Amino acid sequence: MALGAGFVRVSTGSQDEASQIKVITADAARRGITIVRWFRLHGYSASHGTQEPALREAIAEIERGDYSTLMVTESSRLDRREDLDAQAEILLAIRAAGGDIISISEPQFGQTDFAGRIVTLAAQYMNAAKSKEVKSNTYRGIMMIRDNKAHHGPLPAFWATKGVRYAKQAWCENPGAVVDIYKRVASNESLAAVGRAYDLYPNSIKNLIRFAPNHTGVIECSYTHEGQTETWAHQVEAVVESALWWRANKVLDANLTESRTNKGGRPVASPANWISGILDCPGCAGKIFLNAGMTPAKDARTGKPRVPKPRTPKLRCGGQGKRRVACGAFKGIDAQPIVDVVSGIFANDTTDILAFQRVAGNAHELDELQAGLRKIQARLSATEDDDELDRLVAERKRIKARIEGFVIVADRYDYAPTGQTVAEMWNAGDDAVKRGMARAVKASWGLALAERDGQWGVSVGTAGEAGSADSMGIVDLGNGLCFRG
Ligand SMILES: [Zn+2]
């Protein structure tokens, strides 16, 4: 009967030891091996140096002929997997002493194809050494980049690098576009719309806006190697003013771009449809809809094909609620005269559109000053030019003094002209805008179909019971916009 030794290695306090002994004992019995020696190594880490003496001891005992087989549950119990030299050395030493290793979970380990195993080990070693070399070469390259204070890392749209390897300089290829994008975003234009204008994804626009070096002129580069992070400052030419950078980022922070505002309502297909669903039916107080489009391609009665013709647009009762059935009391009228009357209310009205906006207060100026201070602090860490340093320190002092002496005037908001008139908004507006304006006037002033001498027209100013006195007050257009009657 063959004799063997069991080799178990467990982390302190684990229940693993007993289970490893059990597995080894059972496997040894099956192979006809009697375990005459147990090595129990506690404390998992091989780097503690506890296993190396134990293995040397095992090799000596094998040489002496105490036993011939060393059994482990898996080869990782035996060696440091990452130290392939040590692994190969142990395998070879055990074989040289005339012994064998059985790894229960790895039948091939150290066994049938020992030479093959060594070849594999050698290959693994080469691979490990190679990848280590590549890593340290990269690291050396990065350190050269760092020493040159050159650029390393990703850049947003419109930014590129130039120059030789390890000394690349980041620069903005199209400052005009970048400034324009900042301005558009700062004025609440949607990321999607700005993206369309520059053939970029909205996310790329966002990344560009967030890119602080656009105003600081300093890119914080970093590289992490074996847990150590190296950082350095790479100087670039700033593209936008801090105040503009701050305003655009503020818009992103508040999610205030146009695409986020509620446009309301369901999309309506054909133009002039803005009138549809605005007016109330004089017969049943249901909604009046525009009936336009083409006549059917088939005769409803005979089923014969007909040439479709455009209908004369009519305003008809659409009934109430889910029952979309005309009441019958209101027979329907030509739409065009009504459309013309309602359009006329808006199309020539030179009243200013007002927006609820800040009319006093300076807290935003303080924010801008603080953004300017951050820019200087970033540049201070980057510059090595003495004159530049002096200038920056002086500038920093000046801004700090202004911040300290800053007297905050509380923000006051009121309605102030946007520069657009009711007529301009109406004429430039699409269906959704026109519908919104008509609906707003109806809600504020009242807008109703009225019959006079057998002719249907529109009466304005009928809000409330009998058109109250203040019925010609402010029309709230939503989104903080309004106009006064
Ligand atoms: Zn009706």
**What count of domains describes the coordinates?**
4
Compute the number of strand runs: 17
Given helix and strand content, the structural type is: alpha+beta
How many helices? The count is: 14
Based on Cα principal axes, name the global outline. elongated
User: What is the helix content?
Assistant: 25-40%
| Largest sheet entry | 4 strands, parallel
Overview features:
485 residues; alpha+beta; Rossmann fold; Hect, E3 ligase catalytic domain fold; 4 domains; 4-stranded parallel sheet; 17 strands; 21% strand; elongated; binds zinc ion
Kindly describe this structure.
With 485 residues, the chain is an alpha+beta fold. It folds into 4 domains: 111 residues, Rossmann fold; 102 residues, Putative Large Serine Recombinase, Chain B, Domain 2 (Hect, E3 ligase catalytic domain fold), CATH 3.90.1750; 152 residues, no CATH class; 48 residues. Helix content is 40%, strand content 21%. The protein is built from 14 helices and 17 strands. The protein has a 4-stranded parallel sheet with strand order 2-1-3-4, sandwiched between helices. About 4% of the residues have low confidence. The structure holds zinc ion. Zinc ion binds next to loops.
